[in-house]
Amino acid sequence: MSIIHIKHHHSLRHDETRERVERIASQLGRKYKVNYSWQRNLLHSRHKGSSASVYLGDGYIELKIKLSLFFAPLKGKIENAIRRNLQGVVGDINGAPTRITLYERV
After folding, report:
1. How would residue 43 be classed by pLDDT, with cut points 50, 70 and 90?
2. What DSSP string runs through 65-99?
């Protein structure tokens, strides 16, 4: 099992961050049949071959993703895609994008 751990800092307000993360989780849920649920500021998700938790802190998002052995060889590509998507969804400490961009290519 491989683990991806990312802490991404941004400049959005907490409610805006949650709204954007919810929108992406909902999209992924419909498209890839990802089950997810919120527990306060923590989103849990499950999909075949992976599980993830996304914590929304003040000014940062922290992701912990467990990949099955099947996805382990793709860990680097998956991590890079997640970092690119975080930038496209919440931006960084210098500002957030006005339009959410989701890159689906690994």
Report:
1. very high
2. EEE-TTTGGGHHHHHHHHHHHHHHHH-BTTB--SS
